[in-house]
Design goal:
The structure holds 2 protein chains of 2 kinds. By secondary structure, chain A is of the alpha+beta class. Chain A has a single domain, classed as OB fold (Dihydrolipoamide Acetyltransferase, E2P). Chain A is about 25% helix and about 35% strand. Chain A contains 2 helices and 7 strands. Chain A is elongated, with a radius of gyration of 21 Å. In chain A, about 30% of the residues are buried. In chain B, a hairpin with a 2-residue loop joins strand 5 and strand 6. The longest helix of chain B has about 30 residues. In chain B, helix 4 crosses helix 5, helix 5 packs antiparallel against helix 6 and helix 18 packs antiparallel against helix 19. In chain B, the strands form 5 sheets. In chain B, strands 5, 6, 7, 8, 9 and 10 form a 6-stranded antiparallel sheet that branches. Chain B is α+β, with helices and mostly antiparallel strands. Classes of the chains: A alpha+beta, B alpha+beta. The interface between A and B is large, with 60 and 73 residues.
Chain lengths: ~130, ~850
């Protein structure tokens, strides 16, 4: 059964390689402060829409650019440039996850995940 | 609230449902105990069978009651209120049934009941009936408990779908519940618009039938360990395993078809945790089916087969845990909402891990010490705070015990494996499949790893999966192509290599010829190293997939002489290879048609962003889009859906537009669920044109678009160098100049004229200048406006703030400027039909294989 043993060792080596290599390159959840310390790395920043700041979406000029201000979980607010069209129901989002990196004082995001209010937490007003 | 006398509520319905839930749980428990006892004492067998019947009928009773309530709009019940309403089309009532967690558990339980009945008939009075049915009943005990909704020592066990709104903790604060006759006033909240799709009526039942059929080989495997007969069960379990491979595989691809048609992530597969967690059990089950074949033809692989059939089932439980416990959190957009059953789901998973390891141990003393150890650790975890460490230690202990059991109890092959033998190649192929399943599981489990180790890794994105999985796919497809040409035990390597070389060379030629235009002609040298590697791996995958298609066709038509009954494996493998080819080409050569023509790019900042995938279509404009010309012709509102009609044209030689077809992607404006885009796709034989609206104004307005009047003005405060955005241009304050110097103005109170030079750049990059003037004469401000006729803009420079030097300008636009528009994404998926064809061929091949196995079984009897 020698051959199988060699194969077994190869399998273990591949498994360890996957774990090590992928962990080294993988993006992590972070706040703006960490993203600013490492402008070359991609981060997932979790936060809330800062509703006091203006949102700029000018689809006639660039449909793939949407600017808004996000307040991260530590409370720090930064200008965000999302390189996508403005998501539907953006203003209703409770929580936002942005995937991207810092460039200067702006966070440039390729992608966005939003959590919209759960169906459970509506405050009523359902009588038609 | 207790004092309100509600009327109109149909309390009996919920009570009937809950009665069936309790009955199904108790009868499953009784069936389990009785089947266990009847293994050694056949007197209990009748009791066990009857209990199982009662269990089956009570599950039907639960489902029937829930359906009845949904059909008749019993909105006093939480499940009905939350998942349906009177407005929706009744053809989606099935989707309402399984939209919630409880309903989908019920669906799973239902299929298990059906499979259990079939199994019991098949195994009646045999030595397998009692042990196999014990396992089935035990699975049912756990599943039935998911619906119990009772509290034991403060822990909630299960979630009861038959609760009244006012009994449900999430809803009992709703103000309308204070009204005694609230029932006549309310409507349900309705179904999630994404689920209003015909795929959603057939995908979940197929997928859950697939999950349920994974249970069958698992039950056999544990029964075999219990009976201490390691190999006889495999002949009976093999058709069931094929069945699981077929149904689960089709179910997964139906999910892909649904995602492609109804979701707007632009593709059929996104490596979402929910998708992965059904793919991984399928891969392991496929590997298990192959080791079973090895065992049947040559013997051996006993431990591997047991290990894989058990693991496939445990992975189904693990995926249930992942998608339903809320542990995925931000990682998945379409996991279920957390119902507070995390603990119960984890317990479910751990119990079956425990049971499997326990059955692997043959030695009584050893087995008892494992049981005691596990109970001690469970107690320790319950009392102290080190649950996670305890859990990890317990898992490690279970893994070590598994390895020990393997070395102690399982017969080993004496002779060295032959390199050129079918079993060895099949084994390698299965191993690669398992390795890729492990990698996918590991990536999917990142949120779990974060929970266990306190890390903050983000879930890997699609390219990460692709980069890791493609090399494995290449190797697996090589084995898929070649393994059939080997004989069991030993094959002459020269004959074998010669036999496969024809199809290999053919595939190499075709694959290379196809790869060059696909991956290498478009500026290969200019690509980044990662993309170069992708291009090479894509073309390798294409070549080896073609090899797999040709080699299996060769085996089917030449070696098997086209006999359909024997060709299940070849046809299924051919389908699998076609599926990979379709997935590869349609994904890697997906073309963005909706490139925006924006002049303002942010990518100059150092990193390229793919902010070039949306196009803005203003109403009436015709814009080029790939080979087409597209016009946004108008929008229609039907119920909650707003359809955006986009007409596609081609240009004839004379320059006239010739209409081709119309696509109407829609956005559902659901007041309760929010806005949900729904793509529309034009299907051709060799490609799909897929479009969806990402941004649009949903209101249907009636303002005349031809109006020449100006809309109300907007004010801007700024300095030289600042920009103002109008709906159709960017306006930059270029400079200010005055007719007088400051001193002259101080001395002389004649006319001061300050001119603002405003540079307007429109979407087509044309430049216009506006020069509004700020005029002060005798201390009276008389602004002199300027217009840009071409852009329909009017600019008034009316204020200078001396304290900070800023100026104020108002901008008015002609009403006709604000023409309605949509922002749309459009993609071409080339050759995606090969993927669906591959799916059908694979399903057909697997079906033939099942029939052949069943025929062989009959012949043996």
């Amino acid at each position: 059964m020698k051959k199988l043993h060699i194969i077994g060792l190869v399998v273990i080596a591949v498994a360890i390689a996957v774990i090590l290599v992928s962990l080294r390159n993988t993006s992590t959840y972070a706040n703006f402060t960490e993203a600013m310390a490492n402008p070359d790395r991609e981060y997932h920043v979790v936060g809330k829409l800062d509703k006091t700041q203006p949102q700029v979406y000018e689809p006639k000029i660039n449909p793939d650019e949407f600017r808004f201000v996000l307040s991260d979980n530590s409370g720090l607010s930064k200008q965000v440039v999302l390189h996508k069209s403005k998501p539907q129901d953006f203003d209703k989002s409770e929580q936002i996850v942005l995937i991207g990196q810092m460039q200067g004082d702006e966070f440039h995001a390729n992608d966005i995940l939003m959590k919209c209010p759960s169906k459970y937490n509506e405050a009523g007003n359902q009588v038609n | 609230m207790d004092f309100i006398n509600h009327f109109g509520e149909r309390i009996w319905a919920g009570q009937t449902g809950h009665f069936f839930i309790l009955l199904s749980f108790i009868s499953a428990l009784l069936a389990f105990v009785a089947f266990v006892l009847s293994k050694n004492n056949r007197e209990y067998l009748q009791l066990a069978r009857w209990s199982y019947h009662v269990h089956g009928f009570s599950v039907l009773g639960i489902a029937g009651t829930l359906f009845y309530m949904l059909f008749n709009h019993f909105f006093e019940y939480q499940y009905v209120y939350q998942h349906s309403n009177t407005e929706m089309n009744m053809k989606y009532i099935l989707s309402c049934f399984w939209e919630g967690q409880e309903g989908s558990f019920l669906l799973w339980t239902f299929w298990n009941v059906v499979l259990g009945w079939l199994l019991r008939r098949q195994l009646k009075n045999g030595e397998w009936e009692a042990p196999v049915m014990s396992m089935v009943s035990l699975v049912q005990v756990f599943l039935a408990s998911m619906l119990l909704g009772v509290y034991v020592f403060g822990y909630k066990i299960g979630s009861n779908p038959f609760l009244l709104l006012r009994e449900h903790s999430d809803f009992n604060k709703l103000p309308f519940l204070q009204i005694p006759d609230y029932l006549s006033k309310i409507d349900g909240r309705g179904l999630n618009p994404l689920l209003m799709n015909y795929w959603m009526t057939i995908h979940p039942p197929t997928l859950f039938l697939g999950f349920a059929s994974v249970m069958v080989p698992f039950a056999f495997s544990l029964a075999a360990l219990w009976n201490k007969k390691y190999s006889e069960w495999q002949a009976i379990a093999l058709p069931w395993t094929y069945f699981g491979v077929l149904v689960l595989g089709v179910g997964i691809l139906m999910g892909g078809a649904w995602a492609y048609e109804a979701l707007s992530f632009g593709g059929f597969w996104a490596w979402d945790p929910v998708e992965n967690s059904s793919l991984v059990p399928w891969m392991v089950l496929v590997a298990a089916a192959h080791t079973m074949i090895i065992n049947k033809n040559k013997g051996g692989s006993l431990f591997t087969t047991h290990f894989l059939t058990i693991t496939a089932f445990l992975l189904v439980l693990y995926s249930t845990f992942l998608t339903r416990s809320g542990v995925l959190g931000n990682a998945s957009v379409h996991a279920f909402t957390d119902l507070g059953m995390t603990g119960q789901l984890l317990l479910y998973l751990l119990s079956f891990v425990f049971l499997s390891v326990m059955f692997l141990i043959r030695d009584i003393l050893f087995r008892t010490s494992y049981i005691v150890l596990s109970l001690l650790m469970l107690g320790f975890a319950a009392v102290y705070e080190y649950q996670i460490i305890t859990l990890i230690i317990w898992f490690c202990a279970s893994a070590i015990i598994t390895i020990i059991s393997y070395t102690l109890y399982f017969p080993k092959e004496k002779e060295e494996e032959q390199v050129y033998s079918r079993e060895f190649w099949m084994f390698l192929g299965s191993l690669l499949l398992i390795l890729s399943a492990m990698i996918i599981t590991y990536f999917t489990s990142v949120p779990v790893i974060n929970k266990l180790f306190g890390t903050a890794y983000a879930p890997p994105k699609v390219p990460v999966y692709n980069v890791w999985i493609i090399p494995f796919a290449i190797l697996i497809l090589f084995f898929v192509a070649a393994a059939q040409f080997l004989k069991y035990k030993k094959t002459n390597s020269k004959d074998f290599l010669k036999r496969i070389s024809y199809t290999f060379i053919l595939a190499l030629i075709f694959g290379t010829v196809a790869s060059i235009p696909l991956y290498f002609l478009n500026d290969f040298a200019g690509l980044e190293s990662g993309e170069k590697w992708n291009a090479i791996s894509y073309s390798l995958l294409l070549i080896v997939s073609l090899f797999a298609v040709l080699a299996n066709a060769d085996y089917w038509l030449v070696v098997l002489k086209g006999k359909l009954a024997k060709s299940g494996a070849s046809i299924a493998h051919m389908g699998f290879a076609l599926l990979i080819i379709g997935a590869l080409i349609s994904t890697s050569k997906k073309v963005v048609l909706s490139k925006n023509t924006s002049t303002r790019k942010v990518s100059g900042l150092g990193k390229e962003y793919d902010d070039n995938k949306s196009i803005l279509l203003a109403r009436g404009d015709t814009l080029p889009m790939g080979p087409y010309f597209a016009t946004f012709s108008g929008k229609r509102k039907i119920g909650m859906d707003v359809f955006f009609d986009v007409d596609y044209f081609t240009k004839t030689k004379s320059g006239a537009y010739e209409p081709l077809f119309r696509l109407s992607p829609k956005v559902q404006d659901n007041p309760r669920m929010g806005k949900a885009p729904d793509p529309d796709t034009k299907h051709y034989l060799n490609r799909d044109l897929y479009t969806h609206v990402t941004y649009a104004i949903l209101e249907i307005d009636t303002i005349s678009e031809k109006s020449n009047a100006y809309a109300s003005a907007k004010n801007f405060v700024g300095h030289v160098g600042d920009t103002i955005f109008s709906s159709n241009s960017i306006i930059r304050i270029d400079s200010l100049f005055s007719n007088l110097s400051e001193q002259e103005y101080e001395k002389n109170d004649s006319i001061l004229i300050v001119t603002a030079v405003l540079r307007c750049v429109d979407v087509k990059n044309r430049v216009f200048y506006a020069r509004p003037k700020f005029v002060i004469q005798n201390n009276i401000i008389i602004p002199k406006e300027d217009e840009v006729e071409e852009l329909g803009l009017k600019l008034v420079f009316w204020k200078i703030n001396p304290e900070n030097g800023s100026i104020e300008i108002t901008l008015s636009e002609k009403i006709s400027n604000n023409r309605d528009f949509i922002v749309m994404e459009a993609y071409v998926f080339p050759y995606i039909n090969i993927l669906w064809l591959g799916c059908l061929v694979m399903a057909f091949g697997t079906f033939i294989a099942i029939m052949e196995r069943l025929r062989k079984q009959k012949r043996l009897q």
